Amino acid sequence: MLNRKLVEYSDISTKYVKSIVRVVFHDRRLQYMEHQQLEGWRWSRPGDRILDIDIPLSVGILEPHSHPLHLNTIEFLWDPAKNASVFIQVNCISTEFTPRKHGGEKGVPFRIQVDTFTTNEQGEYIEPVQSASCQIKVFKPKGADRKLKTDREKIHKKDPQDREKYQLSHETTVLKECSPWPDAVNLPNQSSSSIPPSPGYQSPPTSCSFTEGCSPDQPTDLLVAGCSDHLLATSSPQDTQQWLLQHRFTPFSRLFSSFSGADLLRMSREDLIQICGPADGIRLFNTMKGRMIVPRLTIYVCQQQSRNPAALKAVGGDIYHALYLEDLTLLDLTDKLAMLFNIIPQRIIHVYRQKPAGIHVLVTDEMVQNFTEETTFIISTIRDENTDGYHVILK
Predict the structure, then answer these.
(1) 15-53: buried (b, 16+ CB within 10 Å) or exposed (e) per residue?
(2) Taking a C-beta distance cutoff of 8 angstroms, is the pair 200, 131 a contact?
(3) What is the pLDDT of residues 285-328, one digit of tens each?
(4) Nearest one of 50, 53, 49, 73 to 61, comparing CA atoms
């Protein structure tokens, strides 16, 4: 991280600066599609990161941090007046963003960019000091050796006059100054509320509330996620491409690039198996047809305080909501109750079952496993004054 400009920079009033390192696409064409490309990579490689920091090998850095939403970004603090070095790991190769995704292709160039910030009057690292970048390509070991050998042979075959057009080799890569990355300033301050919903999320059609007139705790942007969950016959080729990426069918997005929703929906199960293979073909067919996972248990619940006599008379009885449990666990039951009440599951402290004698029994996994299919419950809630949570009672 040797940088003489930062050492001589007179406006730096703090000892440390913050650097944000990111791996981005070098080609302008792919930069316009970066969000779509990275989302496709994220769904095809769940749990993996594009960029990591190797902390044991790094020297002179403080507070290394990798944002869970930005898989291609890391950040850390360091002192420009002292020696600091950071080792990074790029976990994707250049051919993962090419059509066929194999080592025989040229591969797309990446760019490593480092944006450095100092603090403002409030002590926030948002004042840009310097930005620098270099172009890289990432290959597997054999591919890298072959690439270097090919490049050397190409240069040796050229005339001395043509060789002067190429950049000279260096023992270490020097990052050249560039303009700051557009979202570099906003990245440290982004909140967790911007987490994109998973493609399979569907909001319930109706919901209850613990208290009348209170706004739901659930972010409103999550409620529209279910709109694009099903492939429609009216979907355009662009909508179909987005649907394929959202449902982790990225390897086939190029194959179906000109297909509309109606074109895909006309295909039979056998057609998809023949095109995509047995595993992906069956999964694509089931996802297109909207086949839901059959719940292991169904129970019906009615909120006690919402039993309005006038409404009950209009519909001819109590109004119940169906809860479908895929896992026979207390955690799954709590999640479904929280979704029904539009709150986060952590606000439900305990779930009790009230027996005919009036005693309250703590609900456990074993009790949920012994619930009878299509059991009905009346739900009441008690607010916990200490934790601002709720105790839910099933009667």
Answers:
(1) ebbbbbbbbbbbeeebeeeeeebbbbbbbebeeebbbbb
(2) no
(3) 888 877 666 788 899 998 876 545 555 555 556 788 898 888 88
(4) 53
b/e sequence 321-347, b meaning 16+ C-beta within 10 Å: bebebeebebebbbbbbbbbbbbeeeb
Q: Would you give the end-to-end CA distance of the chain in angstroms?
A: 64
- Residue among 264, 301, 315, 300 at smallest CA distance from 285: 264
Could you read off the pLDDT of 165-178 as tens digits, one per residue? Answer: 777 777 777 888 88
pLDDT bin (cut points 50, 70, 90) of residue 342 is confident
Amino acid at 359: I
Report whether 110 contacts 118 (CB < 8 A): no
- Cα–Cα distances (Å) from 62 to 8, 69, 85, 86, 89, in that order, read 21, 21, 11, 11, 18
CB 247 within 8 A of CB 262: no
The number of angstroms, rounded, from the C-alpha of 227 to the middle of its chain's C-alpha atoms is: 18
Spatial contact of 16 and 62, defined as CB atoms under 8 Å apart: yes
pTM of the model: 0.45
